[in-house]
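Quick one: structure for this chain?
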Amino acid sequence: MVMRKAARAIIIEGDKILVMHRNNGGNEYFTLVGGRHDDKDGTNMEDTLAREVMEETGLIVTKSQLVFIESHPKPYNEQYIYLCEVAPHEAIAIQDASEEALLNKISINLHEPLWAITSSFSHLQFRTPQLQAAIIDGVKNGFPSRPLNIS
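Got it. Here's what it folds into:
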C-alpha cells in the first residue's frame, strides 16, 4: 500500500482561523485548508501547501512552519500541518480552476472556505479531534517550535 500524504494550513488572522467546511454526501464537517501531496511530481510539501492554499482560498502563503505531523489511516496516512502567514488579501474563495470548484459545480463533496472565530473553534465538528485539540492548545499556549507528532 502506498503511503499517502497531505499538507494542511493553520492560518490565523486576528481572532479568526481559516477552516474548510465540507459536505461529503451529507456528512458535514470542518477541516483545515490543504490537500494531497504527490511524491511523483517533484514538489516538496511546502510547494503542495502553497498550491492547495491558493486553489482553495486564493491566498498566497508567504511563510510556513511545520508544527504538527498527524498520522491516521483515513483519508491520509500522514498530514503535515503548517502554521502559515499569507499575503494581504481581500475575500477568500475556491479558485475556478481547482478540483474543489469542479466538485462544487457537480454538487459532490462540497467545499467552502470560512473564517471561524477562534474562541468558537472548539465547538466545530472538526474532522480529527486530536488535531483540533492541538490547534486549540497552540492558540492558547503557542505553537511548537519543532514539529509535534499527534495521532
